[in-house]
Design brief:
Blueprint lengths: L1 H14 L8 E8 L5 H10 L3 E5 L2 E8 L3 H17 L3 E7 L4
Antiparallel strand pairs: 1-3, 1-4, 2-3
Helix pairs in contact: 1-3
Length: 98
């Protein structure tokens, strides 16, 4: 469940004194059939993400806050992109900002 994973990530940040409101480098991971990543990358670039990857893995990069209010719509978008492009959304990571 991505909502639970998102909450765990925010909890881990909070334990380090990070409220999530400061924009920071954030990565989103997708895996699946190599042929299916091109459309994801095109849509993500149009939405302002940097894309990189190789083979069966794509990483989307952006700078954004990760507090619940800011992050929830982006998390939902990642999940919908995974469904639309038949890929697995494997989650995200970010740096701690204090």
């Amino acid at each position: 469940n991505h909502e639970e994973n998102d909450a765990r990530m925010r909890f881990a940040l909070a334990q380090q004194g990070d409220s999530g409101i400061t924009p920071r480098h954030t990565l989103f991971y997708f895996a699946g059939d190599e042929e299916l990543h091109g459309d994801l990358c095109e849509v993500a670039r149009r939405a302002g993400f940097l894309t990189r990857g190789q083979g069966d893995m794509t990483v989307l990069e952006t700078t954004m806050p990760v507090d619940e209010a800011s992050f929830a719509p982006v998390s939902a978008m990642m999940q919908s992109w995974a469904t639309a492009f038949q890929l697995d959304y494997e989650g995200w990571e970010c740096v701690v900002a204090k």
